[in-house]
Amino acid sequence: MQYPLDNAPVWRYIAKDGLKSPRVEAVEEFRKAVEESEKAAAQKQQWQQEQGQKKVREADTALAPFDRQKHCL
């Protein structure tokens, strides 16, 4: 990306006195947005891991009869 400032902003916050000290409202709102995004990503990752484990258990259950047949021969 040669000129990154020419692209649309990833995040925007507009409020009266949003950058006024001592409480910088724009920064607080940005931090909230980042935290919410990180929580959502963590939940998605956890869900994907649970789904992967569930698929492994289902595959193990489906293959169990074949394993028993192999040991009986």
Distance between the termini: 63 Å
Number of helices: 1
H and E string: H
Radius of gyration: 25 Å
Q: Tell me about the largest β-sheet.
A: none
The beta-strand count equals: 0
State the secondary-structure class.
mainly alpha
- The geometry reads as elongated
How much of the sequence lies in strands comes to under 5%
Low-confidence stretches: none
Quick gist of this model?
The chain is an all-alpha fold and 73 residues long.
Write a structural description.
The protein has 73 residues and is an all-alpha fold. It has one domain. Helices cover 66% and strands 0% of the residues. It contains 1 helix and no strands. The chain has one helix spanning 25-72. The longest helix has 48 residues, at 25-72. It is elongated, with a radius of gyration of 25 Å.
